[in-house]
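Researcher: Sit down with what I've pasted below and flag anything odd:
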Amino acid sequence: MKVFNHEKKVLTEFEALNNDLREAANNAQFYSNIMMPTLGTLSYVNYALTAAAGGFLVIAGRMDIGGLAAFLQYSRTFNQSLAQISQQTNTLLSAMAGAERIFNILAESPEIDQGQVTLDRSDAKEWYWVNGKNRVPVVGNIKLENINFSYVDNNPILKNIDVWAEPGLKVAFVGATGAGKTTITNLINRFYEINSGQITFDGINVRDIKKDDLRKTISIVLQDTHLFTGSIADNIRYGRLNATDDEVIKAAKLAKAHGFIKRLPHGYQTELTGDGEGLSQGQRQLLAIARAAVANPKVLILDEATSSIDSHTEALISKGMDQLMYGRTSFVIAHRLSTIRNADVIMVMDHGQIIERGNHDSLMEKHGTYYKLYTGQIELD
């Protein structure tokens, strides 16, 4: 807003929304508060009119006193029911509004999954892609060929992307915000479907692999870490629910989280609440990395995974990160170029295209965009 000098426009829009909200709130309060007195008054008027009419009929000899008393009692009972209904009006209207949102969610179309290839993990050491009688070992060879993608028609995000990765290869993406780095990893997971081109996993088109099975082979560590209410061990075990305590501890050691966990009052059984309140951002990030490690994935995606960690903590976990990525296909998205110096391939992206690729040394020799980024001549937005 400040960059584009839109403060006044945004304030005007906010005031309009605020006025609409105030008017709606006033109307809601007015109608809800006036309903009870109105119905109460009507019930008393109704009772009085009924008593007067009944008294006239009694005097005229067309009704006895007992019948009048019973009728007045029925009238009061009926009025009380109406009053109780009016008391529930606000609750009913709120429930209807909530139900509308729920029904909108229920009306959403489910993900289309026409994949037939499944994952066999019965052997802990060797996984297989299974398609009928064909069994292909899960290795982690990822290939993106001539990928084009757009979230909105006629607004391409990725253009002619070609990426190849294999186990033990660390592929890094750098570029300004909106360049398409995260989008590439989302396409590998099939969070979105490509417009054209092909993505293969061990030579199998990812569209032929069941989404749930595909995602079981991939672990993602994001910039924002979400922890659940429960013990630290359970939060790490969320990466693989059947992991043993020894495997949880091993993953924590790999992520360099074991040290601070042992210093907590109850170690791995320390209860976390409020999304990990009481832990630093760096410690929460270490738990997210341990969660990825315990899943033992074939493909690892680190999306700004160390952006919330200070330089000291980053140096502490760099060795553990290298151990975690060892033998796995790894994709790294980073703003800190120091974290990807040892990447085997660095992809420099700009407006949905790969404009440079190579390792750190070769890109520095070219004196191109990466060189300018690394030397601070230009900055990532």
The mean pLDDT is 86. The two ends are 16 Å apart (CA to CA). The first strand starts at residue 118 and ends at 120. Residues 7-106 form one domain.
